[in-house]
Fold:
Amino acid sequence: MSSPSERSRLDPYTTQAENKHITLPEKIKDLCTIIKAAKTGMLVTRNTEGNLHSRAMNPANMLREGQLNLVFLANNVSAKFEEIENDSHVNVSFFDSSTTNWVSYAGRARVSQDRDLIHRCWSMSVTGYIGNLKDGVHTGDENDPRVSAIEVVPDEIRYWFTEKGAVSRTVEVTAGAVTGKAVSPGELCTITKEEIQLLRGPHTA
Structure:
């Protein structure tokens, strides 16, 4: 494995892109901007055979300062719930194709039947995915026992953010290709485990 100095030399793109001086409030602002623009995330889970499965899902909650957990509402009969029970480690990624900004959540998922949480996050669009079975129980609404919340609690969040337009990014990368000099038309940032814990408070697991 390369030493930090050797890794820096061999990976000039990352070295140039990493911003270790940005403040936590600025990071949260960037994070919310990217997720709001991207709208849809890819939730990745692992099955008992070690295979990774991903699916597109829209967060049911809005991020806010001090709360970076993602909440998804889904049918608890689906395979992803079995996979979360087998291994709670998950990844959620977002990509905004208009800017190439992206976010990657690494953390753990926990399943909740908290009806208050489900009520707060409820959207009628969920009914379209689970359906009303017309049996008086599985009604497709927020009281349907099939509806559970998947809450993703991050251990680390990495993101890439740029405010440069597509033309500027293309020109910069093309110039780098011609000169042989690595360029980064954006910034790579990390919300660390320590920063996430700081937001949660000292007594929150």
Q: What stands out?
A: The two ends are 33 Å apart (CA to CA). The helical segments are 4-10, 12-17, 24-38, 79-86, 115-121, 125-130, 166-179, 193-200.
